[in-house]
Design a protein that fits this description.
The chain is an alpha+beta fold. The chain contains 15 helices and ten strands. Helices cover 41% and strands 13% of the residues.
Length: 419
């Protein structure tokens, strides 16, 4: 935050020169006589800050109280005041040389429990502090994810919808969108009835022209509303019934012609001279531990080696999945394999390993190490596989013990399913 890079776009340069010439956008104020554009941008900044998180590196730019840098928990005002009494206002003051947490200092101020939880926050080994988007799983900003972050904040400040299941059913109806919108407007009493128009200051005759006596308000639509909802629900149930019948008929025809596949053989054999590494992780929140499991098999489905271990702490899921892949690929490299297929049931991590560019995930350093190790193979492919195809690695991660090399006898039956 000390060095402010020069914006590339001319529009941004104008805004920076006028509203925040000596600070960053995150620290900018409304200023004197702001334009409507600048007001709108600052209004959207609240959503940006709410859905963002700092990835810690040198921490010169991250403020302890004002910035969002903690994962899945927050410090209380009492803890912030205790840090400020010591003169600690930036994350860099909580780190030792070598980019590691100063645990003795944290324990003396915050206690053992909070010091331990803070020590689990990952620190980037290289680069500078990174401002990442936490509103989506892949930490990549999109208007869609920002909408849900803003909607979540709006729902926290308003009365909760007493009929969420009812409206979910309405939005899922197989009818034109204009009918769904009409139903929503009826339910929220926002139709352009004469009564509502009068409330908005529009002059009109309030008597209903059909009966000539009553006011034309929402009550006139109650009967039609109930009949329309009833008919739509009946039509939806009937369509679902017909769909189920069609699926049953198609399934019976496939079974009749022998198209049904065995449910035991999900895992696909790798090509000859190629080995396949399957990885998985498991988190035990009640034990404050997490498990890693990886297994390497050849083209005959023979288990070459496996690893499983139990670690202290509760990392976020992407970090745990990436650490398991790093454990497995390191073992494959030590064994001297040249061609490797790495399968994981974490689509997020697999996509990140196949993607080029900056990684915004908390497991940035692990992703970089895995990519670096992958260059040592003649061929190394990262592929996604569903949990049903990853049963052996999943079972290893759930053993809650440590082991290396040999497959436990309790898992022989699972390994034999793929022979």
């Amino acid at each position: 935050m000390e060095n402010h890079p020069k914006p590339r776009l001319s529009t941004v340069q104008v805004l920076k020169a006028k509203y925040f010439p000596f600070s960053t956008f995150l620290e900018a104020n409304l200023g004197n006589n702001p334009s409507l554009v600048w007001r709108s941008i600052l209004y959207g900044r609240e959503t940006l800050l709410k859905g963002s998180i700092w990835r810690i590196a040198n921490s010169d730019s991250i403020r302890i109280r004002e910035d969002n840098w903690l994962h899945n928990f927050n410090l209380s005002s009492r803890h912030f005041e205790a840090l400020q009494e010591r003169g600690i206002r930036r994350i860099s003051q909580l780190l030792e040389e070598g980019r590691t947490w100063n645990l003795p200092l944290l324990r003396s101020i915050l206690g053992n429990h909070l010091a331990y939880r803070i020590s689990l926050v990952p620190i980037r080994a290289t680069g500078s502090d990174l401002f990442a988007w936490s509103g989506s799983k892949d930490n990549v900003f999109s208007v869609r994810s920002a909408y849900f972050v803003a909607l979540e904040g709006l729902q926290q400040n308003t009365v909760r919808n007493p009929f969420p299941l009812f409206w979910n059913l309405i939005w899922k109806l197989d009818v034109p969108p204009k009918i769904k919108l009409f139903l929503w407007r009826v339910g929220h009493q926002s139709l352009a009835t004469r009564d509502n128009l009068g409330k908005r200051g529009i002059t009109c005759v309030l008597e209903y022209p059909v009966c000539g006596s009553a006011r034309k308000n929402q009550a006139h639509l109650n009967k039609a509303w109930k009949e329309l909802i009833s008919n739509l629900l009946c039509a939806t149930v009937l369509a679902a019934r017909n769909c189920i019948i069609d699926l049953i008929q198609v399934s019976s025809q496939q079974n009749q012609f022998g198209h049904r596949q065995s449910s035991n053989r999900h895992w696909i054999l790798p090509p000859e001279s190629t080995f396949k590494l399957n990885c998985d992780a498991a988190v035990y929140a009640h034990l404050d531990k997490w498990g890693l499991g990886s297994v390497i098999r050849d083209h005959n489905a023979s288990v070459i080696c496996c690893q499983y271990s139990l670690q202290d702490g509760i990392p976020d899921i992407p970090l745990a999945e990436a650490a398991t892949i790093l454990q497995g690929i390191s073992a494959a490299l030590s064994a001297g394999f040249e061609r490797l297929i790495i399968e994981s049931d974490s689509l997020l991590i697999v996509n990140e390993l196949n993607r080029s560019g900056t990684c915004f995930l908390s497991c940035h350093d692990i992703i970089c190490k895995v990519k670096q190790l992958a260059r040592n193979f003649v061929s190394c492919i990262f592929a996604y596989t569903p949990r049903s195809n990853n049963r052996l690695a999943h079972s290893l991660a759930n053993l809650r013990s440590n082991g290396n090399g040999r497959l436990p006898s309790s898992l022989y039956s699972i390994a034999l399913l793929y022979r």
